[in-house]
Every structure is written in C-alpha cells, then in structure tokens.
Task: structure prediction
Amino acid sequence: MSKIVRHNWDWAYPPAIRQQAVRFLALHHTVVYTSAEQIHRDHKDMGDAGMPYNWLIDLDGDRHEGRKLWQVGAHTHGYNSVAIGIAVVGNYDTHRAMPGAQLTGLRECIEEMREEFRGVGIKGHNEFSGNATACPGRYYPFKAALANPLETIPVRLRSNLKVRMRSWAITYNAKYPDDVFEIPSMGLKSDGWGESAQLLAKRVSYRVQRTDPRVVTSALPTRALYNALHW
Ligand SMILES: [Zn+2]
Result:
C-alpha cells in the first residue's frame, strides 16, 4: 500500500492557477534516480517555480504531492494547462522492470485521477504533439499501469451468497455448502458451510478476516472490487 507524502514546497514563484478543464494525464519518468526534494531544487535552478509534476511516485511506491491539481505544472510542452503530470522516479528507457511497489503506487494514482477527471486521455509524454522526448521510456509499463482492475480480478459468486456493502466494508455470509465467494488473485475463497467473513476495506488496501482467523491482505484498489461485485 502506497502512502501520500505532502510537502511544503518553497516555490521560486507561485505556479499559475489552472484555468482550463483537465483533459489528459501525462505520464513521465524522471530519468534521474533522485528524491522529490532534489527534483524540486533542480527545477528551481533551471528557472522553474519548482517541482514540475502534480504527482511523483518514488521507487518505494510513495506518492509525493507536487503541484496541487488546480495548479498548472511544467512537464508537457503546450499541454500543462490541460494535463495532470504524473511522474515515476527512474529511467524506463534503460530499466525494463519497475519495482512492484512503484507500479502499485502508479496504478493507484492513475486510478484515482481517472475517477477525479472522468474521461481524461492518458498518454505518455512523447505522445503529445510537439514533445520530442524519450519520456516516459520505451519500457514504461503502460499495460500494467493502466490495467483495468475489472479485467484482472476474476470474481465468482454462486448460490445463495449474500454480499452487503457499506462504504468500504463488505460482509458476506456463506449459508450453504456450495456457496462460493472467490477472488483468486486475492487468494480469497470462502466455500465453507456457515462460514462468514468480513472484508474491511480502506481506499487502496483491504484485509480479509475469516473465523479461523486467517488474515489475507492485498493491495488492489477496493473500488475495483466494489465494481466487480456489482456486475
Ligand atoms: Zn516527461
């Protein structure tokens, strides 16, 4: 589960306030392996206000808040006023494999921004016209980062299983021997007669407790699970 890190950026000058609707998520890599603070300083040195992105995901998957969503970034030439900049630390033109934690943080970030700005286009930096760059790198994991969780969480519900949802908590009760509640990718399966379980969900992680009481944890977005249960 990735955490959000907020900074008190000392801007060289205040970033402009966004005047236009967000139409894109622009995906970047930083090329250099460095900290959010150092990127901020480097951009100030270049004459920028500072941290150019809206979000920066480090190698541990922690998500650093850069410019507020209502502030114009400095990452994609000609599109900053209509794009949210999401960068990952690293060079994905030379490194093939993104660390799992970073990929998780990236997925969560994209998922959240997709919800925030319905219908946005999602593109790599170099897919924006007039931006001749290798960014975000030939090995950038687009497919994994943009995977629709509904496609990756097979859910089986059978028989008389009752599933109740209240905000982010899911309670289900298996009443008959062939009741099955199964999400294989989560390692979650409930098929025991009289077994009940409660799934306590936070925004991006959840925990499954059974009566036995094994605990299964995972880091998939629960909103995806909610959608899956409401097919
Ligand atoms: Zn870029």
In short: The first strand starts at residue 4 and ends at 5. The CA atoms of residues 38 and 51 lie 9 Å apart. Confidence is low (pLDDT under 50) at residues 149-180, 191-224, 226-231.
